[in-house]
Prior knowledge:
The complex is a heterodimer. By secondary structure, chain A is mainly β. Chain A has one helix and eight strands, in the order αββββββββ. Chain B has 13 helices and eleven strands. The two termini of chain B are 18 Å apart.
Amino acid sequence: MADADFPVEEARPYAELMTRMSQGVIAFQRCVECSAAIHYPRVLCPVCGATKLVWEEALGDGVVYSSTFVHGRDGAPGHAIVLVDLVEGFRVMGAWTGGAPDPGTEVKGAVALDEDDPRLIFERAELT
Amino acid sequence: MIQELRGTTAIVGVAESQLGQVGPDRYALDLAGEAAAGALADAGISKSEVDGLFSAVTGRYMSNLDVGEYLGIRPRYTDGTMIGGSSFLSHVHHAALALTSHACDVALIVYGSTQRTDMRRPRTGGPAPELPSYEAPYRPMHPITGYSLAATRHMHEFGTTREQLAEVAVSARQWAALNPKAFKSDPLTVDDVIGARPVASPFTTLDCCLVTDGGGAIVMTRSDRARDLRSDAAFVLGVGEAHWHRSISQMPDLTTTATVDSGRRAFEMARLGPDDVDVVELYDAFTINPILFLEDLGFCAKGEGGPFVSDGNTGPGGTLPVNTNGGGLSYCHPGMYGIFTLIESVRQVRREAGARQVEGADVALAHGNGGQLSSQVTALIGNEAAL
Lengths: 128, 387
């Protein structure tokens, strides 16, 4: 393996996110140059292009931006999908138990490790 | 600089392949070839004259190589831009630039898909997953959930109703009844749409585009040649491209698409505005799409797309005819519908659309969408009177 001409500080963002999520952390990156919250993680800031990024931990507090309920076929159960704006300033897709919540619903998210890949599950909660 | 493209190139040939469900013995490249032959015949141009090739054929990773080989075309300018269903409108932009710079003299834009028939073939394994995916753990139903999430948000912000979404499908079906090539033309009501099998809230099956087979092709030349070929050439007045995201969780605002950029660029190049447009062909993959695009193109204010479509403006006899062929919802949708917005636009400004002809159609707007509201490309097509 040859080195890149311009080596970035975070060369394996997906693997690093999976490692952090598998420890129960809702991880995201913060750009040191422009302070943008970055999710999904990248090797450079999609706002300003800087490669100086630091990992931070989100609380999981947020507001439902949108939602949809995917109906099952032939009697199979359906499931809801949510897009949540987290208070740290980025949006994520997440899982939700039950019918799709209305946009504007205040929620709290946590990492679930019950399937092959770690995932975010949100539930109704009052933002403090 | 940008306005130099206005009217410098023209579409001189269009054709559809066989559409609908073509049967197990036909494949995507067959339909692409059939459409290409038809468009060249329509233009009165020999295949040997094609020196610019543009294509996006479903399931073909190197589409231009396949199409060039299949058709026996050796292009000196080749462009396989693949940005989903809007690719062919992007090709029109790129072809206009290539033609005006004399990088090619005859441009052929080609599409083919046997998406419907492929579902009935023995499975050979799906395409390799695109890794990594940050959405896969949530089991989205691509592409439907991207659009249903946008519809939910539009309803929340602007009070758009379930009935207004259904009106989009009803309007498309009314037009489809006037198009003998339409896949579905039986009468449809708002109650039918709302009462159909739910897929992803707020959508039912009838909020979703058809799954059909089909191909289409377009031939373009510079305008001087176009006038020698035919008296009813369809000139490219303006075209604009934009894309801001790929996956729906990265779309900044689910109620405003990159169409605000593509539309503005096309209108500026054409030196036209929404009031100048006689007929509109929008990529209606789902019922929310025309609502978003009518707003983002400036035909109504942001948030008023729902009332606009439910007031009967867009159907036959309405003030702004939209999707006069019946659209992806009722006419044909092989997966990347964009080329059909162009073909119908050309037929309208040539005044050869038969029972669905819009009276006095001089300027048509074709708008393509790709991915999950991801790529947006707008083209303004006009006849000689529109120049």
